Amino acid sequence: xxxxxxxxxxxxxxxxxxxxxxxxxxxxxxxxxxxxxxxxxxxxxxxxxxxxxxxxxxxxxxxxxxxxxxxxxxxxxxxxxxxxxxxxxxxxxxxxxxxxxxxxxxxxxxxxxxxxxxxxxxxxxxxxxxxxxxxxxxxxxxxxxxxxxxxxxxxxxxxxxxxxxxxxxxxxxxxxxxxxxxxxxxxxxx
Length: 190
Hints:
Its EC number is 3.4.-.-. It comes from Streptomyces doebereineriae. It is an enzyme of class 3 (hydrolase). The chain is of the alpha+beta class and about 190 residues long. About 15% of the residues lie in helices and about 30% in strands. It has two helices and eleven strands; from the N terminus they run H-E-E-E-E-E-E-E-E-E-E-E-H. The strands form two sheets. Strands 1, 2, 4, 5, 6, 8, 10 and 11 form an eight-stranded antiparallel beta sheet that branches. A three-stranded antiparallel beta sheet has the order 3-9-7, with no helix packed on it. The longest helix has 21 residues, at about 1-20.
């Protein structure tokens, strides 16, 4: 009886091994599951803030160490409910609707492989609409924000990689306060 039992086990082991050898090679992991260094350069093509003239950044971009790790995959900008939400750069609306009870607008930026997202937003645009920089796409919803005060979460992605949305804005748009002229040193005065 024991000989038959081990014989069957041996047969199953051999069959399992043969299946393992003849199985197709595993498919590569999708890029969004593989935390690799990708192109993080972003052209400063933005021409407007999503909300306000120079909103307060309540929470900045904190890239996660791993794909599913902790972090903040965008920036939170202070904005009272009902504030207009504007397109940062030219593009086409790829989504305007609700996700997990929050209004979301996504825009694929013209001439790039970048996509921006804004939430919570009551959209006034529809999927497929072309938007210009500064064009109103909706208003800030009074609820659904993850901030302690009302805010807009603004995100930026290239494919499945999250990037810092503030990198879309040129330096002159990020400056706070008035410009200051500095003296030119070592130049004699007339």
